[in-house]
Design goal:
Layout (H helix, E strand, L loop, with lengths): L4 H14 L2 E13 L2 E4 L4 E6 L6 E2 L4 E5 L2 H26 L3 H34 L4 H29 L4 H26 L2 E3 L4 E6 L6 E2 L4 E6 L4 E8 H4 L7 E5 L7 E14 L13 E9 L1 H4 L7 E10 L1
Antiparallel strand pairs: 1-10, 1-14, 2-9, 3-5, 3-8, 4-7, 5-6, 7-9, 10-13, 11-12, 11-14, 12-13
Helix pairs in contact: 2-5, 3-4
Length: about 325
């Protein structure tokens, strides 16, 4: 090599040494799933179980049901109480019944007839007193009787007006509140009845069955475990020296035995807590033993190829100086 070409070669070597190169690194990991536990919402005996382990279910598909007798009786009771409350409200809104009003009207007519008779007797007594045939005491008695009969007529008119009026505003408000409370009780009983039959909240594969037909399930106890494809992830560990090159939303490739092709995935989680490959004391000398947990999630359409517990290899491109 001539003296003229030596500086040019040195420059090229320097530039190449300063360029970044992407290194492909492979890490061992495993598949993990986050199943959805479908629990009983009411306390009761299981009367049916429509799925078994390994079944693929769609969202909304029936899973299991419990004894409905108690809740069905509660619904019937709530409906009867609502009907009673509505009837009481209607009764307060219309006043007394027509037969009761008819009785008051008849009593009013009787009082009016007696007042007419008293008025005629009072007129006759006035004429007789003027001619001196009867005493003034007889006129006073006739006047008093007429006043009584007029008061009786006024009383019966007031009773008739009251009978035609609806209930007081505070009574009607109380009745309306009772109707609303009865409606709420009916809705609550209906919901509890519907909760005796559980449907799948997600689409996925049934992973496990925890109770069988005839067994008693309490509220909150899981009966069926379902693993949706979107809840399948891959966990792997990277050394401390690689941690700085990783970012969330970074693409990785997953390889597994028997998979027809590489499964793409995206990093969603990078742990901030270090772990050790064997237990060692933390020191500058042992930094290469530090590892960090990383989780990558494939797309649901690709995740169906993976199974929880399955060992996999994860490759990613890491830029090196």
């Amino acid at each position: 090599m001539s003296a003229r070409t030596l500086p040019l070669a040195f420059v090229l070597i320097t530039l190449l040494a300063g360029c970044q190169s992407a290194e492909v690194e492979t890490f061992q990991g495993y598949v993990e799933g986050e199943p959805v536990l479908v629990a009983a919402q009411q306390s009761g005996q299981l009367t049916s179980l429509t799925v078994q382990r390994g079944d693929d279910v769609k969202s909304g598909a029936p899973l299991f049901s419990q004894d409905r007798a108690t809740e069905a009786a509660s619904v019937s009771q709530a409906r009867a109480q609502l009907a009673q409350a509505e009837a009481q409200l209607a009764n307060l809104a219309t006043g007394k019944r027509p037969p009761e009003i008819a009785v008051v009207e008849a009593q009013l007519k009787d009082a009016e007839a007696r007042r007419t008779l008293s008025a005629e007797q009072f007129s006759r007594q006035q004429a007789l007193v003027a001619k001196g045939f009867v005493s003034a005491e007889s006129l006073d008695a006739a006047r008093t009787q007429l006043a009584r009969d007029e008061a009786s007529v006024a009383q019966m008119k007031a009773q008739l007006a009251t009978a035609r009026l609806p209930g007081r505003s505070d009574e009607r408000a109380a009745a309306q509140a009772q109707v609303a409370a009865s409606q709420a009780a009916l809705e609550q009983s209906t919901i509890r009845l519907e909760q005796t039959s559980q449907r799948s909240p997600v689409s996925g594969q049934v992973q496990d069955i925890y109770h069988r037909v005839g067994e008693w399930a309490a509220p909150g106890q899981a009966v069926v475990s379902i693993l949706p494809a979107e809840n399948i992830k891959v966990r792997f560990f990277v050394p401390e020296s690689t941690l700085g090159a990783l970012r969330t939303r970074q693409a990785v490739a997953i390889h597994c035995d028997g998979c027809p092709a590489t499964v793409p995935a995206t990093i969603r989680f990078i742990s901030t807590t270090a772990e050790y490959t064997p237990p060692v004391l933390f020191s500058e000398k042992n930094r290469h033993r530090l590892v960090y947990l990383v989780e990558a999630w494939p797309q649901p359409k690709d995740a169906v190829q993976l199974h929880p517990g399955q060992p996999v290899s994860v490759t990613l491109n890491i830029a090196r100086q």
